[in-house]
Amino acid sequence: MSELTTSQHFIGGARVEPASGEYFESTNPATRRVLYRAARGGAADIDRAVTAARGAYEDARWRDLSQTRRGRLLRRLGDLIAENAEELARMETEDNGKLLREMRGQLATLPEYYHYYAGLADKIHGDVVPTSDRRVLNYTAREPLGVVGAITPWNSPLTLTSSKLAPALCAGNTVVIKPSEHTSASVLRLAELALEAGFPPGAVNVVTGFGGEAGQALVDHRALAKISFTGSTATGSRIAAATAGRFVGSTLELGGKSPNIVFEDADIANAAMGVVAGIFAAAGQTCIAGSRVFAHRSVYDDLLERVSDRARSIRIGDPLDEKTELGPLAFEGQRDKVAAYVDIGRGEGARVLTGGRSTDGGLGGFFYEPTILVDVDNSMRVVREEIFGPVLAVMPFDTEEEAVRLANDTEYGLAAGVWTQNLARAHRMAARLDAGTVWVNTYRAMSPMSPRQGFKSSGAGVEHGTETIKEYTRLKSVWINT
Ligand code: NAD
């Protein structure tokens, strides 16, 4: 135990001991090996971090820096991430069990987040407004908000943190990040890289710890100007309620139960590959997981056979091994949750076509087989609730009308996939699906340049693109008597 690394908070540009003196362990889910001990943050640590962030914001080191200079720092941070990509990719693979080759892919695009907002930094401006009164000059200014709180989950710590950090900094805010208690390491390293890039101490702070402690304290902090949250709908709803009365703005990226709809005119081989990648990538632990499939009755058997054949051949094992196709769930509780859901499905009358068992992956870890459920319908919990694991529910439909109705019959509205060769149908479906992102003949494409929003219980506010800058700025109207 004594040789374990202890990782402190990162506040005001330095590593800081937790006020409580307490640490908690972070475990590699593939092997159950304890990786490091992270600082257990609480209200005192959050207060210290928010004060550091407020100081960096106010004392002209950051807020009044020229926008050109802000852009240069963001560019430099993107470059540093590229230079340290392999280290960061391995950190996340060890912490949450995602495949190293998938993490290398994510790290290859991560610098784009910073480079994109670097290019936007000097393009944030207000307007001169032509009011009817010619004796006054009216103009608007787009100002930063102050201290932004960022709370993120464990499934893609660096990417999901960067979706918040890059635009928040670009707009002139400072940030306090509370990463998931399951994955603290890579986000702490990111904050160190920000300091190395030249961001002033206090511009980027990280307080590690649990949601009900550090997370809650950040949400409740009186000096917080905004909260940007990615995580479950249940937590998002609690955060929205806690901040609403104080009129603190929130951007919420929440859960999903996304449909993949396969029409009779689809390229079935392509659709089958998309369905498999949509649900089994990252062992199903992506918010956009295509966890429900609706297949036209005429191609249902063919699709199911292709998808289940592929699912059975998926190679489970060490996420560091290039040949592995499915890693573990991120921690024991998540693996148990997935197993419990499959049992619930069995109890509801679902048939397990393939998978349906926990395994230790030969490494002693928290793995679960790629699982396909059939004989299911929209009334069942396994079809309605987010499982966040490698579990797919497949159902037939007869008409386009019915496909739309079944796909939209969910509290979620994050994403949807449509597989068809008919262009007019593709446009019709894109217009009628209640989802913030619609993919046609592809799945999981994403870019920091493209705005995304969760509909219904999947979120509030926009991330990515130029659109998100509005979420990190406020608009001031200035009138001058001429
Ligand atoms: P979670 O809601 O349990 O936790 C997310 C974060 O919130 C963690 O850092 C946690 O410590 C913190 N937290 C928990 N309770 C809190 C509280 N009361 N106050 C403040 N912070 C609190 O979610 P998770 O299990 O870590 O992540 C999985 C969920 O995230 C899934 O529902 C998934 O769909 C969602 N997700 C959404 C997106 C998206 O872009 N829409 C992306 C990835 C993941």
From TrEMBL:
The entry's keywords: Oxidoreductase
Database matches in Gene3D superfamilies: Aldehyde Dehydrogenase, Chain A, domain 1 (3.40.605.10), Aldehyde Dehydrogenase, Chain A, domain 2 (3.40.309.10)
Domain of life: Bacteria
Domain spans labelled Aldehyde dehydrogenase: 18-478
Protein family (similarity comment): Belongs to the aldehyde dehydrogenase family.
GO molecular function terms attached to this record: oxidoreductase activity, acting on the aldehyde or oxo group of donors, NAD or NADP as acceptor
Active site: 253
InterPro entries assigned to the protein according to its UniProt record, in alphabetical order: Ald_DH/histidinol_DH, Ald_DH_C, Ald_DH_CS_CYS, Ald_DH_CS_GLU, Ald_DH_N, Aldehyde_DH_dom
Protein name, as recorded: Aldehyde dehydrogenase
